[in-house]
Amino acid sequence: MNRRSPESQVDRFRPSRPPSGTDNFANLLRDPTLVVQEIVARELARRGFADLRPALLAVGQHVRASGSRVTELAARSLLTKATVVYVVDELEKLGYASRQPDPADGRAKLVVPTERALEAERAARSAIVDIRDAWAVLIGEQAMATLEAELRGLRAALWPELQLADRDEFHLALRSEGK
User: Fold this and answer.
1) Which tens digit of pLDDT belongs to each residue from 83-96?
2) Judging by beta carbons within 10 Å of its beta carbon (0-12, 13-18, 19+), is residue 159 exposed, middle or buried?
3) Is residue 70, in this structure, part of any structural domain at all?
């Protein structure tokens, strides 16, 4: 059996394009985010979800398990409602989403992920773990742990009201996975 060396595993999780602009604060946050999105799309293709293009992921990643309204998806993805409707149509055709009546408002529809979408989400989460581990090889595990802790601190400071909601959602997700 021919196993890849750790270096080649790390290379698989490197960006395919140079960073944008200088190393100012905003670019330091944006560039790694764009690289993660690029690599996740590439990894999803390797794992059987080649039809999920980055443009579809830009919206699809915001669909909640319980369903999301198009207006919410537009706000979260920073896209126009018309663009989101187009993307949701495509996600529906590909079998990643369905539209269902909103129980809170019979006139509205919810975009709900299908089982295929949930499989893709699991594959994407696995890819993110692989990216994190590969990048830890590049900068060192201690540096990665420090970076994650500092980013969690920034997140908590920016959205203090979400701390309990995130914790509850995390524990619900663990329970549903049987952990």
Assistant:
1) 999 999 999 999 99
2) exposed
3) yes
